[in-house]
Amino acid sequence: MSVGAAGAGARNSSTRGASSIWTSACEASGSRRLKLREAVRVEAAYFEGHADRMRYAEFRRQDLFVGSKVIEAGCRTVVGRLKRSGMFWTVDAANAIIALHCAPLSNRFDDYWEDRAAA
Question: Given this model, what pLDDT does residue 24 score?
Answer without folding.
Answer: 73
